[in-house]
Amino acid sequence: MAARLAPKTVLAHLIQRRNQTYSEIVAEFVELGGTITERHLRRLASGERAGTTPQTRRTLQRMFGKPVEELLAPYVPEQPAPQFTGGQQVVPAPAASGRITTGTEMEVLDMAASRARAFALAAQSGLGSEAMEQVYDDVRHVAKAYPQRPLPEILGQLVETQDLVFALLESRQRPEHLRQLYFLGGVTGGLLAKASHDLGNPHAALTQARTAFLCADNADHHGLRAWVRGLQSLVSYWAGNPHDSVRYAQLGAGYAEQANSTTSVWLPVSEARAWAALGNPEATRAALERAEEAWNTVRHDDLDEMGGLCTFGRNRQLYYAADALAWLPGEAEQAERYSRQAVDAYNDQNHPEWAFGDAAGSQAAMAISRIASGELDGAADAIAPVLDLPTERRINGVVHSARRVHNALRASGHAGDARELQEEIETFTRTPVQTLAR
User: pLDDT-derived band of residue 128, with 50, 70 and 90 as boundaries?
Assistant: First the structure.
């Protein structure tokens, strides 16, 4: 018989002592009211994961009689009894202390319980209606949280949720659930496309988006197809590829027309700011008009009902319009008007549509419009809240917006009068969110 691998954690040691398989441990875990997958348990036992949800912590402590911090600590074989040499006791070196779970890790694994619950049910007899609703809740929760919480806090939840949906799709499911799971796979893929973009990785973002579009096709969901095209347009815009941004927005227009969801507003207003980046004011204004007219036929679909990043509201429309017009020197007055409305709309952080990234973009658009009018002090006031954002909120779009303000100052001919502001922006952009320790 092959020798067992040396346990890396106290948890792994205790599992070995029980002489049980991991699947048996998981079954006992579920019987005690907890939820965990065999994969997650193995990662905890191997030391690959240190964070757990409160429910998981409680159940593990109940099963093994030790605090989770002790269970996840590196396993040190028992030392021999103290020996006495020359009348002095030789004391073995103390074991290394375990890694303490941080508050951030607790946040990023907040969804693990939902993931495990649905997976455990699916592994037994296919996904039931209650479990299907749980998966919807998991995806809906992260979609709503995404625009309002720092990315490092929710990225783990998002990855776990996608992992859950893909695992369910790869297992045997009832035919009536497959379309729903492909829909949720498209949503989670889209959210991870946005996450990849926010971390400054457009290649990974477009890869996730292509998979999301495949899921949208399998779900045969026009609104989801249009939404993914909107994400591709967004990624291309911030990656400095405005022609691609226009192309993706136009590719999604037919799907949006059939869905009549809020994507029918998002796509033309996305196209507008890409045209503006290309210096085409006529196409910009035409796209902005199409976006406004689209509200006459909008009816929310099940993607809109997810909320958060899955729907497009009036506040975001104001921000996109301000962002677009800020590119065009002849539209400074209109850009100021839209940006003022957008900034006012995002003042209320308790509003369901509030999003820190869009709020920052609105402030930047206002700063650019004021620079065009020669109001350097007003521009400094407008960008000040952005420059106060902590590193965990300095996502790719926010950093690029700040750089646009820097570029506008340089192009204005008044850079010498705004040197201090330019230096503040340079300091801000040196530490985007991706510089945080992984």
Answer: low
